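User: Could you check the structure of this?
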Amino acid sequence: MKATLSAIGLGALLACASAAHADPVVTTVQQGNGNKAYAEQREYVELITREPIISIVQVGNHNTVGDPRSQTGGVLQSQSDGTTAVVEQHGNRNDAGVTQHQSEFIVLARIDQIGNRNFARISQTGQVFSDGTVSQVGNDNVARLEQVGVVDAGAQVVQNGSRNELLWQQNNVDHSTPVVTQTGNRNAITLFQDDGMGQVYSIQQFGDRNTVEAESRGGAQESTEILQIGNDNMAKSSQVTAGGSVSLITQTGNGNWADIGQTGFLNVAQIDQNGNRNWARIRQSVDNVQASIVQTGNNNSAGIYQH
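Assistant: Sure, the predicted structure tokens are below.
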């Protein structure tokens, strides 16, 4: 009943917004099993009001956002003056996808999934002020985000459950602020940034056997902050940049492993570990760099290499 009221309330809210602003609005509400949905908006130019809006709410099992007979992959918004896409799914084995590209103003994409074995993907290309958000509650969730040629990108991923996985790729993105939080067991995060500037990554994991691999290449002034609280944590940060980059890893728990590698001028690296059987290494190349390792606990091993 709660999900049904939410779906109806959202539909009514968007209907009022459409009447008030005359924006192009697509609203789909599906309750039941085996549902599919596809929505597409192209080449909308703002004349009077705000931006195109797509909202899809699905309550039930085996839902999919995409296909109807093969227009294919989910929500598509292209060449519009600002876009908003919201997908909400309640149930098991859901699949959702949002693709947005070549918009001149603020772009927003959000996927919320509650249930087991969900999959979410957001792709944003060639835009300014892009914001992508994924929230997953349940087991075996997977999220994939891709941002290419974006300036001023804000994005957030929250996963609550076991066996969560995130793959995040950015290419030619400037001034983004990705925030990732995972709560549960066996969480895994892979971040890759190529040819960008001014990125600030904030990663938090709460649970057992968490892993993070973050890599930045070809940019400058990158910041990666990793916090892991739990057992058997592993964090690896690699920054091959022109310089001015910062990498911070903090781990609390047993069996922690941390590795930072940096290339470039004026880089800063720091590892803080609290617990037993910790292992830490920092490797830095080029001049004017700073490195620090602090370990509290037994059987620790640390190494700092600057050359």
